[in-house]
Amino acid sequence: MYRDFYTVIPAGGAGTRLWPLSRAHRPKFLLPLIGGRSLLQLTAQRVEPFSPPDRIYTVSGAAHLASIARQLPELPEQNLLVEPGMRGTGTAITLAALLIARRDPEAIMGSFAADHKIGDTAAFRRALASAIESANEGYLTTIGIEPDRPETGYGYIERSDDRALPGAYFAHRFVEKPDLATAEQFLANGRYLWNASMFVWRIDVFLSEFERAQPELFAALQRIADWWEDDRRQEDIERAWLDLPVTTIDQGLMEHVDRFVVVPVEMGWSDIGDWKGFSELVEADADANCFQGEVIAEEANRCVVWSEQDRPVALVGVENLAIIDLADALLVVDREKAQNVRAIVSKLERERPDLT
Amino acid sequence: MYRDFYTVIPAGGAGTRLWPLSRAHRPKFLLPLIGGRSLLQLTAQRVEPFSPPDRIYTVSGAAHLASIARQLPELPEQNLLVEPGMRGTGTAITLAALLIARRDPEAIMGSFAADHKIGDTAAFRRALASAIESANEGYLTTIGIEPDRPETGYGYIERSDDRALPGAYFAHRFVEKPDLATAEQFLANGRYLWNASMFVWRIDVFLSEFERAQPELFAALQRIADWWEDDRRQEDIERAWLDLPVTTIDQGLMEHVDRFVVVPVEMGWSDIGDWKGFSELVEADADANCFQGEVIAEEANRCVVWSEQDRPVALVGVENLAIIDLADALLVVDREKAQNVRAIVSKLERERPDLT
Questions:
Q1: Over the stretch B131-142, which tens digit does the pLDDT of each residue have?
Q2: N or C: which end of chain A has fewer CB within 10 A?
Q3: Which of A332, A334, A339, A340 to mutate to test the interface with B (most CBs of B within 10 A)?
Q4: Residue A188, C-beta contacts closer than 8 angstroms, at least 6 positions apart
């Protein structure tokens, strides 16, 4: 029998590159994108066979707590952790691990971002089962995505050919986002996997490795965890938290360990970072268009339309556009320039903060 | 002293290529496009020094009569001619000429489309004065536009070097829309002018030439003109009109005459046929964008935005698009494919006639 499995879902970040659909008060992970369900809800649903609701934790800002509480009504309130400021996923996950360890020192935990899409839930669950097996053996484990294109927007994990277990390989390094030529080599090589920031480990193993890699940060987080349940300590927690450095798991921990294990998987994964990637959410038609709402197209290709207005959208002779048609804003963006939507949001933050 | 000058404004055609701004019930010439005034109103205003309101006639379908009557309140009601069906500008203009001839057999008339834009009114009026002088001498006269680009979307007039009067040249032929290589030759040649369907002539000269070129049609139109003021003849008029062939001035008359006179002019003319040409209406900014409504742009070039919605339109990394944002429809079109908007309108005529 395995130890009990706990899930931590870091739910930070507004996803401003999906403006105007995502807003500061309506971040990407809360949007009802797929069959009326949010990516957060789907993330919790995917781990259900492993973590019943009382073993699922979220870590978010206070601004989103109420929405999270309503979207995941089955989670106990004390599992909805609030970070007083965003200090990176490494900090958020370690706090959650410290709190879970107090409840169950034998626990295995997995951490999965709130705003990723996974098309093939069965494949995810098979990979997670393998990762839990690997974690049970004491390995720091990650789930890596088999690339299907030379993507330059993601970091990679280089695996070895040595297996820790069937379907689970030893790995020694994370690789930064490559240029296109390097990404093409990675794809041809076959041992490079996309880093989707999915981590599975025994909490005791993780905490001792993290303490070794980041002794000061670890000590500070331990103090915060000690105070956590004490209402009189709220201001101390906030002050201590805001003094913490921003730390990711990749840089704060994984770069400091000699080896870890990666479970490769193909499962229709996407981080839907911007309007370029958004079409991976909705099924495309024969012209590679993804339409939500009433759309009439004449020679339109590779276009995304998301319309919440009660009127038709007509496209004529256009390619590779994303058109987001909401009651209070209309965005038309070339999907190859999708990352520049951030510039619009920056302008609006100064001039029309009500729209951001 | 010249004879009295009468203006005829054929106001047919919905301009479906400017959908969704233009509709069957709201054709291009009625839209308040420039400073809140319609192209029809501006057309009437331009001829004011030559034709007082009681000498201006319109020819339109019944569907637009009420709007025309309200937009041009100073025109006598009997000057607002209604054609029972569209049978081409040749038919419409000849009917108007026959009716004007009954009132003033000595008249000179000019015919100007209701939906063209002219930037330089003074230049137009100078050209019209020359054309009236030429018409007074008995010449069939047209005003031709000096081309500033090798346009393939317009027909041309080839002038000779022989002058009938200062600034007025004899010409012998109209030329169909050319291909690009031919249009470039026309531009280099210097004797080719755009045909803007602006005709100026003595009505007696015109009617005798038209009778010679189209004897049967002329006889039929004369019968209709005889019946025109007789209310008991309305059904006869309608039946006779609907039996008429479609005839333009170019094909019905100008191709059958040996020579005519053309007055060349530069006057910022555009027929604003579709969303490609629409930017000639509104002044462009430094990035060649023409925006009406609240627009936030990040790397947008040569885009037209016409927004009637109370919300911002954000453009990111897009080029040469027209975006028409109305309460009941949104159009996004590549301006180079603007002529295909007609295909959308055809689809809508079957599926959503309320939107056409």
A1: 999 999 999 999
A2: N
A3: A332
A4: none
